[in-house]
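2024-03-11 09:14:02 INFO worker-7 job=invfold-0412 stage=load source=structure_tokens
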């Protein structure tokens, strides 16, 4: 039992990079989310919008909007990072973000 008024922080970075659920956890692999690859995976192994009865009510809308935005950008522009991933310094806030911002290069296709 936890004491009343306690604050709990869930380490989503660790959850989302758990080798128990993702064979190459530190590499971005979109195929991890294909139905055949997600089948049998624990429901809470990926929780970008929280989970359970108090999860984000806008989750489906946010994911749909994100897919539309990303597909539009990626169809029309080349996007590259100005720094290698090994040099990213991350900060946990309401969302996980880089401490120095996202330094990217965007060029029309």
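2024-03-11 09:14:09 INFO worker-7 stage=emit residues=109
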């Amino acid at each position: 039992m936890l004491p009343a008024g306690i604050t709990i922080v869930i380490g989503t970075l660790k959850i989302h990079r758990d080798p128990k659920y993702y064979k190459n956890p530190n590499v971005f692999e979109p195929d991890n989310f294909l139905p055949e690859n997600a089948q049998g995976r624990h429901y809470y192994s990926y929780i970008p919008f929280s989970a359970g009865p108090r999860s984000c009510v806008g989750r489906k809308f946010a994911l749909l909007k994100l897919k539309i935005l990303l597909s539009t950008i990626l169809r029309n522009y080349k996007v590259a990072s100005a720094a290698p991933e090994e040099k990213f310094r991350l900060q946990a806030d309401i969302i996980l973000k880089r401490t120095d911002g996202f330094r990217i290069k965007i060029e029309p296709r």
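2024-03-11 09:14:09 INFO worker-7 stage=report msg="The chain has two domains: 1-47, 56-109."
2024-03-11 09:14:10 INFO worker-7 job finished
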